[in-house]
Prior knowledge:
This protein has about 250 residues and is α/β, with parallel strands linked by helices. The protein has eight helices and seven strands; from the N terminus they run H-H-E-E-H-E-H-E-H-E-H-E-H-E-H. It has one domain.
Amino acid sequence: xxxxxxxxxxxxxxxxxxxxxxxxxxxxxxxxxxxxxxxxxxxxxxxxxxxxxxxxxxxxxxxxxxxxxxxxxxxxxxxxxxxxxxxxxxxxxxxxxxxxxxxxxxxxxxxxxxxxxxxxxxxxxxxxxxxxxxxxxxxxxxxxxxxxxxxxxxxxxxxxxxxxxxxxxxxxxxxxxxxxxxxxxxxxxxxxxxxxxxxxxxxxxxxxxxxxxxxxxxxxxxxxxxxxxxxxxxxxxxxxxxxxxx
Length: 246
């Protein structure tokens, strides 16, 4: 029943906020910190979370300064990870696969709110899209990425993709590890049941990428993963060997 309510809320909120986005574009409102382009994803997330009866609590928010370009790297176990991050971040653009930008209307809308397109079909296109994304980040756009790629079924960290770390090195911006806990209990992968409750989002101290090169990306991956794993272990009792990065 709650899933139906959330779906209905999405069907109402999405076109209404898209219309607001169109108006902002027609009025040529610039996409900058604190603008409506930051508000729309946050409003959308908060509406759906409210209907789902899910509360989000964040700590370490001093590391989420809107004016400073950086990459937030989080774990990923549920669709609610995206909603939780969007609800608490003052500014954050998401990286999405290129196929989503080809969807009529939706693709244009996510492009307008600053989402970043990444090609994953071939190596050359992927590197070109990383360069474009890096330029956008350097222009002042914090970015959110889920380093495990697809959703997992448990909180123990799975192998991290190196893309977010190559992007951070290329852009020359710090990485802010982001640990999300409580989303499995709200909606587990493969299930269609939503349960009310609390999600906790913990932002860790930024890790500078100054001095790292493309060849050092594996070292950076392991540093970020180890810090996230420590939070999961010490705060939530999540144990398990960390697999080698992919």
